[in-house]
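Thread: assembly with ligand

MN 10:42: here's the input set. Chains plus the small molecule as SMILES. Want everything predicted jointly, not piecewise.
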Amino acid sequence: MIDENGSALPAHGMPAERVLAEVRELRGRDRPTHGGRLFAYVYDPGVAGLDELAAAAYAESAHVNGLDPTAFPSLLAMENALVGAAARVLGGGPGTSAPEVVGSVTSGGTESLILAVKAARDARPEVTAPRIVVPASAHAAFAKAAHYLRVELDTVPLDPATLRPAVADVAAAIRPETVLVACSAPSYAHGVVDPVERIAEVAATARVRCHVDACFGGWTLPYLRRLGVPVPAFDFAVPGVTSISVDLHKYAYAPKGVSVLLHRDPALRAPQYFAYADWPGYTMVNPVISSTRSGGPIAAAYATLRHLGDDGYLDLTRRTREAVRVLADAVRDVDGLRLVAEPESTVVCFTATDSGPDLFVLVDELAARGWHTQPQLTYAGLPRSVHLTVTAAVAPRAAEFAPDLAEAVAAARAAGPVALPPALLALAGSLSPESLTGDLVAGVAAGLGLGAGGGLPERMAPVNTLLDAAPPALRERLLVEFVSLLQRPSY
Ligand SMILES: *Cc1c(COP(=O)(O)O)cnc(C)c1O
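BT 11:07: finished. Tokens for the full assembly:
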């Protein structure tokens, strides 16, 4: 029913029902956001009525503008309430060792990290070539922050046995120009918590800020600890931790568009602000990157936290933990697979043994059985792997995973590994990103079934295999070209 070649602007306006029907039809092509079988991108608590509540709160505030807290005090109040909740969950607030924690609501983890780097950079204006130190497992958003802010990224390698950096290597990477040291609680890829206490200590000794990226785990680790899981200290209870990020649109189960960046005190936050009065329009003061900000995500997050409550999150974390256990056992029980790390948070990450199936084929076989997992490419001595972000909605389905996994492994073994033309693989391994021409990419894309104008192949294993054979710089170029082919306006 949708005109694939149409723009969003018809000559004549359409009735509301028809427009909504279009949106719903388009949405029907997406992966299912509910049902507990999607292990990336979407965080679902599986709580009846929560979507409706969040949507109603969103609608209530969608047109309100966070640009000016004096014009819209509702948003200021809700933002302060969200920051207060996040500070409490992460070891700050009255009666703690970090009573002066302040923060900002941002649009997501990436924005929180960019702002943490910006605040650290601008706190040291005398440093002309600023640098940040991060473990190799740090989220790619740090690289994006470094790129946007012209800060050098010093990456500390991982110990392949623990998937953590050696603290001595972190200390050695700190230079006079280092403005920030960061670590993860936990890392996205493997769900491993870095040695935060010791990293914060070496940062403090060097008088450098230390950011804990708890975008992923900030809303589960504290609850896991209360459930008796051994969780190392990672929050404001750790001296030397100067800022923490936590994404409310992940395990706080708020709709997309909300993260919180916390600082230990207002002075640490000060360089995050941008104010400008040297133009004829309104004087501007922005704590975050966006200036005009919809109240929708803030109100939806506020409603979500109020509705679920502390006891609700504890219960959701308990269910998530149980699902993690069931999924990890399923992996352990299959011949040919092994866990990359023992799950210590809410990630299950596995790889194939030498005699195991082709993981990228397995990912497609799981998708064919309704399980949407996330393939991770070979990186710096670490094998390719499959990532599962586990949320509470998975719990009721978890028992169905083991038989489907066993079946998918058998199917992947029967299908055999992806066989790309050897010349193509050789090209991927040897081509320099600079020598990649548009024609070459179009040819490769066509060969892989990636059509111009939005076409995606049924099976992603060939694409993943090609990317896997390429070094990171070439992967980046190929991805940009592939996505650029998809992103063409419809008229
Ligand atoms: C998701 C994530 C981010 C980035 O968050 P976005 O909301 O996708 O921008 C950063 N760090 C970690 C550890 C994450 O899991």
